[in-house]
Records
---
Amino acid sequence: MFENAEWLFFDLGSTIIDERIAYEHRLKGIADQANVPYEEVCRIAVEFYKQNKKGDLETAKFFEVELPGWYIEGEVLYEDAVKSLEILSKKYKIGIIANQALGTRQRLEQHGILKYFDLVIASAEEGVAKPDRRIFEIALERSNCKPDNAVMIGDRIDNDIVPAKLLGMHTIWIRQGFGKYWRIDKEIEKADCAVDSLTELCDLLQHDKR
């Protein structure tokens, strides 16, 4: 399926970066403001995610409290991120297409993984954010890559899979973080493949490249 792939484009959050601690911090902040058990807040958030909504934001609205700021210190690499990127970078060009604040390259450098990426396209620097097709077009243009030779890998069906498919890119849904709860209702939401970890992704692409 991916035998023509030349470029792999990754999302960051809940794809390469594990955001569990950051989301726990945010949901605990909602629980503290609302004076309700943390477990109850988590349950409600998951129910919103299962409705294809942004669960943390909707939960804050539900309890009529302010959405806590993002705890960037809670962002860590998935345990298999470095090994997977190291292996894949030997076979493919690798890029980032992500909705991120300013300083994405610096954060990747701090995580020790910037060296694996040939291109970093982040929303704050480009002035356009996913799911807008223009951020994908920017990545394809700067990589000089045709859509059929590109694979988009991300946890969000709405931000990653759908817009990439509409441009003719191949897609892989990585079911990590809250994105794994997305309910597939439409044909356009179906990725070419789905995996549950970067290790599984690596195994899939290594096999397909042979």
---
Amino acid sequence: MPQRNRHDPTKNLVGFVVGDVEYAITIGAVREISNPLAIVPLPRAPAGICGVADFRGEVVPVIDMRSRFGLAGTPATRRTKWILIDLGGRTSALVVDAVTDVFGGLDIKKAPALGGGDEQRGIVGVTKHQGALVFVLDVRRLRDLAAELATSGVLVTSLPVPALSFKGEP
């Protein structure tokens, strides 16, 4: 019987790249990593939300991390990925330039105050991986963004289905 790969508890972060900077989020928040799907843009969506997508029958908000970090948009490439994360019972997709690695962030230091934009960036800590600095994001800040979309009335996740009637039927 083949041996199954078991989750390594020391690997607690999923790394990704946005622009030229490496970031990570806790692996416990990650539901899945996927190739990008078609996005339906939403009028009056909060900044950073590029629209919604149908992901396996679920309407998910799509958060453009380049936009969230104030970077210019770029066309998707083969390396562009979606990291589907659980934001308190609601799945959302993070559009990132590339996913790098699953690794252990054993020595996470508190993020330095960088002034304006700290709230938007949502960096909770900094660690090193393969000699590079990696900024660890606070998933709760993204949860607030998804909640803003849900409470804005822009996104309706379930619509009433009208009864169908056919010719000749009452």
